[in-house]
Amino acid sequence: MNPSATGWIKKLLRITISNTDFLNADKDTFYTALRSCGFIFGSNLSIVANIIEKHDLSEDEICKINLTIAFLYTHHNVNPKIGFVDSVLQFYTAINELKTSFFDGILGRKSSNVQLEKVIHKRIHIDHNALTKNFNYFIINALLFVDILAYKKFLKEGIISIDYIKQLEKAIEAIVLNAIDAKTKKNQYDESLIKLFESSIRYHDAKPLKYVSAIDLITTTLEKYYVLDLTCMASWSDRVIDTNETKFISKLGSDFNIVPYKTKESIAFVNSFYTKHKNEIALLSSKNIVQSFYDNSSKMVSKLISRNSKRLYKELKDSKELLILLTHSTHRELNQEEQKKVQEQLLDIFKSIPSLAIFILPGGALLLPLVIKFIPKLLPSAFDENRIED
Length: 390
Description:
Blueprint: H1 8-17, H2 27-36, H3 59-78, H4 84-97, H5 113-124, H6 130-133, H7 136-140, H8 144-157, H9 162-181, H10 188-200, H11 211-217, H12 221-236, H13 243-255, H14 260-276, H15 289-307, H16 309-318, H17 320-329, H18 336-351, H19 368-374
């Protein structure tokens, strides 16, 4: 089976007909299988429950299979009376109508296995550009289980509320970022990880959730296990879960009313999983995924700024408030409100310069700090008192 070629879903469904044991497993057993293959963490290293052989499949191909199998399991155990393929397409159509941008130009055609293949491809490969390719496997794909939880709700109720997905993602963001904040000592990598995580959330809100409010939004057992595992994963990303992080995770388990041994099991599993697979996961490589992303992006941004310097400087001069804020950024750290203004106004400018349109793609906002870093070189030296001319 080749998940990169047309017809793979039809073949996968045919294979699962002769191996239905996994469909009849209880939800805890199936969730554990999803976690064991890495799907929950966004690092798909094997196929869930070894339903088919891994062979030489790439990670994104394995991810496609695992996502489809998770949908299939959910469909079989919630509402098998309606067609599987059509139900998943209806689910993603509903999300598309709720203004998500993942499937623009994909939906609205005849329902079919091929159509679903395109949707799943688009969901996993949000964009093949340099901005997202480096980190989508780790963070964006770690949020794929949100789709499964939302699909389950969709099958039960026949509709999907935008509020459910929004609140779930906001709750995950709030709790995971609190976990990172609990680190005894945060380094530059942790700060970068926070930016990457925030950029991966589909629905953004200017007002972040408080921890207590986030806890109240996580209600089902699977949601709790999922958020607990993501929290352990985020804590271990620097290769150690320190004392403060352990206390935070234990408190999280207690706030979720999860029995203590389950919380300890989650910590132990994450330790074991990442220790065992540290050489297979890009995040944990000697040059971690975040650093690689910023190194590659820095070169690209520098080139784009250089090539568009004249037009960009003209646009900046016409935006006086932005120019003032950029000037201030050369001497001090901008506050959150100022950063938001800079981001919005820069994106408006980039819309008018075709070759800079890459910054308004999914994940493009991540590069704005790099843009700001290079823009002062466009400004007269009077704007930057500390500049040393080459």
